[in-house]
Amino acid sequence: MRVAALQMNSGTQPGPNLDQLERLAGEAAGQGATYLLSPEVTVVFAENRDGLKAVAGPWENNPDVARVGAIARKLGVSLHLGSLAVALPDGRFANRSVLFRPDGSIAATYDKIHLFDATLPGLRNYRESETYAGGDAAVVSEAPGFPLGMTICYDLRFPALHRALAEAGAKVISVPAAFTVPTGEAHWEVLLRARAIETGSWVIAAAQAGTHENGRSTWGHSMIIDPWGRIVSELGGDGPGIAVADIDLSAVDDARGKVPALANARRFSLTLSASGPTVFAREDVSA
């Protein structure tokens, strides 16, 4: 199966972003790709929360969702919208990934679980939870023709989620993202390859790239990685493009057979002995 990661440079208005998505999706489909993944915040990369409120609507009868479904139907592909912001009743948003079937219908949705809340020395505080509500359900979908585990951006830093997806049957993991330049340069490739190696899965990572209308700069370097951790297709970091690769699902069984880390995992307890033998039950050894 041929797959593609669509690298974008999204701005603050849906129309031009969806035009860019349609152009890139058309190029990928023209090269024979049948599953296409776009980046996080494909539809709107807002300057701030107020900018997001001005253009992001609720889920029901969402015109941007409808247009992406129409693109999938026109091209006859499984089009995976990396994410869009969906307005919620409490004034926040869901960062939602949407997988469309080739007929334009919705096969699966996933709301980003992990939110970036941090106090960085010498820099402003980041509180993603003030704008977004985190999801609470991991998702594996069979709709693209293979078992697909869905993640978004910061989820990449949480191995337990990826293990759970693989244990639930995922053989391919999607990573739509908008990594900043400093963190992207330092961590993007190594984390993606680690998640592929740990789970013995294909990883398809579609990123935002370049300098954006909102003033931010993103790392790009969209890539497709095989279950042994090898990069089989990669873009640079300057702007839009497509990374295409043929994936063989037998490579998953091969990698998991050579290094059966999923099968060999064991439950365990943790003892803190500094003040006596306190034991904490652990449900997931990958946490």
From TrEMBL:
A Pfam family matched in the record: CN_hydrolase
- Give GO MF terms, alphabetically: hydrolase activity, acting on carbon-nitrogen (but not peptide) bonds, in linear amides
Q: Where do the CN hydrolase domain residues begin and end?
A: 1-249
Q: Which InterPro entries match?
A: C-N_Hydrolase (IPR003010), C-N_Hydrolase_sf (IPR036526), Nit1/2_C-N_Hydrolase (IPR045254), UPF0012_CS (IPR001110)
SUPFAM superfamilies associated with the record: Carbon-nitrogen hydrolase
The residues forming a coiled coil are none
**Per UniProt, which keywords does this protein have?**
Hydrolase
Q: Which PROSITE patterns match?
A: CN_HYDROLASE, UPF0012
Q: Give the family, as the similarity comment puts it.
A: Belongs to the carbon-nitrogen hydrolase superfamily. NIT1/NIT2 family.
Concerning PANTHER family, the annotation shows: DEAMINATED GLUTATHIONE AMIDASE, NITRILASE-RELATED
- Name the chain's protein: Nitrilase
In its UniProt entry, the species of origin is given as Devosia insulae DS-56
